C-alpha cells in the first residue's frame, strides 16, 4: 500500500481508539522505506507522544516488571517504559518497532499486551493506539518468523515505495530540490535494494534524506561531495547524483522565470527535471508572500513552454502537492489546464 494511503489508515486507527474500534496495526517493509517515520508523523500531527519499545533489546521479564513484597502480598512494579496516562498523557501511540527482530520468547510476552491491551495488572490507557513495524524475512535483516498467535493479533499492511508520495513528503520537509529533481529524472533509484548482494549503502527514502544532509554539509567542498553522497546512497547512485548536481551550472535563471521574464527551456532532460523541482521550491517559498499568485502564475506560464507537455504536467502536479488547492485560484491555471486537456484525458 502507498505511504499516503497508509498514513490515512494509521490516522483512522489512532482516532478510533476513543470509540473502541482500534485494531493494532503491523507495518511490513524493507529497510529505509519510512515505516517508523509514518508512525512518528501521526504522533506529530496529533501532538501526542510516541512510546517506542524495541522488543529485540528486551528480555521476556522486562515487560512484566519486577515483583516486590507488599506486606503479605507480592505485587509487580510496572516498567516505566510502558505508556502511563499520568506520565505520558491520556492519548498517544505505543510503537513496537523492529518487532520481527525480537526472539519468539520475547514476542510471546507481548501477546496479551497487543490483543487485550493489558499485561498482568497493567492496562494500556484507552486513548492509546498500538502500532508495530518490522522487516520481512527476505530483507537480510535480523528477523524471526512472526508466530501465528502474534500475527493474528494485528491487521497487516505492506509498505510500497511511491515516488509521488515521497516527493510530496520531500517538499513538506524542505528537502533539497536537487535531490527531488534527480529522483524525478531517475525514479527507479528512489529505492534500489537487492538483499542478495547485501549492500552497505543503497538508495532508499531514508538514505536520500541522508544525501540531502550531505549536500548541505559538503556543497562547498567539491572534493568531498561525491564520496559523501556515495556513503549515503551507494557508489553508483552517488556518482549519478554528483554528475547531476554539477550539471546544474547550466540551468536557466530561476529568478527571471518567477518574474515572468523570457527564459528558454533547457534541451537536456535532466536539467528540465531540475528546473521543475526548483520552481516548485520557489513557489513554496513565495506561498505566504503578497506576490504569491504572480510567482505561481509565471511558473504556470513556464510549464507551458516544455517541449514535452508531460514535463509540464509533472511540474504542475508537484506544485499542487506542495501548495494545495490555492493553485486553482491562479488565473493561469485554467489556461494551462485547457492547453493540456488532451494529455490529462489520455492519462
TrEMBL record:
<dbReference type="InterPro" id="IPR027417">
    <property type="entry name" value="P-loop_NTPase"/>
</dbReference>
<dbReference type="GO" id="GO:0016887">
    <property type="term" value="F:ATP hydrolysis activity"/>
</dbReference>
<dbReference type="Pfam" id="PF07728">
    <property type="entry name" value="AAA_5"/>
</dbReference>
<dbReference type="InterPro" id="IPR003593">
    <property type="entry name" value="AAA+_ATPase"/>
</dbReference>
<dbReference type="InterPro" id="IPR011704">
    <property type="entry name" value="ATPase_dyneun-rel_AAA"/>
</dbReference>
<dbReference type="GO" id="GO:0005524">
    <property type="term" value="F:ATP binding"/>
</dbReference>
<feature type="domain" description="AAA+ ATPase">
    <location>
        <begin position="21"/>
        <end position="164"/>
    </location>
</feature>
<protein>
    <submittedName>
        <fullName>ATPase</fullName>
    </submittedName>
</protein>
Amino acid at each position: 500500500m502507498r505511504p499516503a494511503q497508509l498514513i490515512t489508515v494509521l490516522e483512522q486507527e489512532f482516532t478510533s481508539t476513543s470509540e473502541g474500534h482500534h485494531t493494532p496495526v503491523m507495518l511490513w517493509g524493507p529497510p529505509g522505506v519510512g515505516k517508523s517515520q509514518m508512525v512518528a508523523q501521526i504522533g506529530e500531527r496529533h501532538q501526542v507522544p510516541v512510546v517506542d519499545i524495541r522488543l529485540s533489546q528486551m528480555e521476556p521479564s522486562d515487560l512484566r516488571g519486577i515483583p516486590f513484597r507488599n506486606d503479605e502480598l507480592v505485587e509487580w512494579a510496572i516498567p516505566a517504559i510502558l505508556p502511563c496516562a499520568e506520565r505520558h498523557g491520556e492519548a498517544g501511540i505505543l510503537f513496537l518497532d523492529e518487532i520481527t527482530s525480537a526472539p519468539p520468547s520475547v514476542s510471546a510476552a507481548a501477546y496479551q499486551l497487543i490483543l487485550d491491551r493489558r499485561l498482568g495488572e497493567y492496562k494500556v490507557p484507552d486513548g492509546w493506539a498500538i502500532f508495530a513495524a518490522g522487516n520481512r524475512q527476505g530483507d537480510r535483516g535480523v528477523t524471526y518468523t512472526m508466530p501465528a498467535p502474534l500475527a493474528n493479533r494485528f491487521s497487516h499492511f505492506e509498505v510500497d515505495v511511491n515516488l509521488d508520495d515521497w516527493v510530496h513528503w520531500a517538499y513538506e520537509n524542505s528537502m533539497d530540490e536537487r535531490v527531488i529533481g534527480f529522483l524525478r529524472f531517475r525514479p527507479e533509484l528512489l529505492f534500489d535494494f537487492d538483499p542478495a548482494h547485501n549492500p552497505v549503502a543503497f538508495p532508499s527514502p531514508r538514505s536520500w534524506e541522508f544525501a540531502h544532509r550531505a549536500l548541505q554539509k559538503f556543497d562547498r567542498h567539491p572534493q568531498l561531495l561525491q564520496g559523501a553522497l556515495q556513503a549515503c546512497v551507494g557508489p553508483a547512485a552517488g556518482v549519478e547524483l554528483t554528475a547531476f548536481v554539477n550539471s546544474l551550472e547550466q540551468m536557466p535563471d530561476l529568478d527571471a522565470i518567477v518574474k515572468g521574464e523570457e527564459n528558454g527551456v533547457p534541451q537536456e532532460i535532466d536539467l528540465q527535471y531540475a528546473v521543475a523541482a526548483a520552481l516548485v521550491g520557489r513557489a513554496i517559498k513565495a506561498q505566504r508572500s503578497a506576490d504569491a499568485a504572480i510567482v505561481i502564475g509565471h511558473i504556470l506560464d513556464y510549464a507551458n513552454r516544455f517541449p514535452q507537455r508531460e514535463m509540464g504536467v509533472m511540474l504542475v502536479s508537484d506544485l499542487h502537492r506542495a501548495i494545495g488547492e490555492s493553485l486553482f485560484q491562479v488565473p493561469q491555471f485554467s489556461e494551462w489546464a485547457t492547453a493540456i486537456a488532451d494529455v490529462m484525458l489520455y492519462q
